[in-house]
């Protein structure tokens, strides 16, 4: 299996991505690190602990950055609920799974100690990843790639031109895209098309404890109405690793706007090569929505 670290701000779609990764035989989740994003760091860390406790896995959780590098946190509690994962009663979290190291030091240790290269799966703002790459650049040699959910080759969902994970901490994203580590970017171009529908959700409780939990979280996601489909943003990053055949990728140069008057947090995806830069990312520009739906349901069915 591929050794991975998930950096996350759970978050309902984060919870789905984490489940799919933890129960996949092709991935070995070594560490979960938390970051402020959808909600504040206390809740994202508590939620990550709740998830690993619920899934009965002994994956350590390390708490990370509580604020973006330069900006105040603008969270998404309006979408994910006050605690970030409302709608399901989780058992008491197993606090012994909380690492004594912070996210950056826990990642550094794991990456440098590992015999195999580690894949990073960031599915929240990139604050921790930027801090890691700037504090300990020696880790880069033992990172296989960064497979992220973030950005957009077109428009935004936080602002006109900014996707949430990039828009919350554009400076961190810019650091990551310029770090020289191979990047796979699953942004809104695929996230907006990776949809699950009410008729998918009703099947979930019969799939066991993970399906039941996700079904209950979905009832609260975006206020509970999802006739036009619920966007599975973060599971797209996991799917890029596990089922790349669902996607169309373009190798291209990506930069991040950090000081635009109206466009800060925009990922500038140079598909036409205007900037004459070498490619630094493989960008998922399209997804087969029907195949994704099937992959999602098959994956949750295996989460037992
Ligand atoms: C991203 O923003 C968050 O609300 C989701 O968890 C996802 O990571 C989508 O733009
Ligand atoms: Ca997320």
Automatic annotation (TrEMBL):
InterPro entries: I/U_nuclsd_hydro_CS, Inosine/uridine_hydrolase_dom, IUNH. Its EC number is 3.2.2.-. It comes from the Bacteria. One of its GO terms (molecular function) is hydrolase activity, acting on glycosyl bonds. Residues 4-293 form the Inosine/uridine-preferring nucleoside hydrolase domain. The keyword Hydrolase applies. Pfam families: IU_nuc_hydro. Keywords: Glycosidase, Hydrolase. This is Ribonucleoside hydrolase RihC. The gene is rihC.
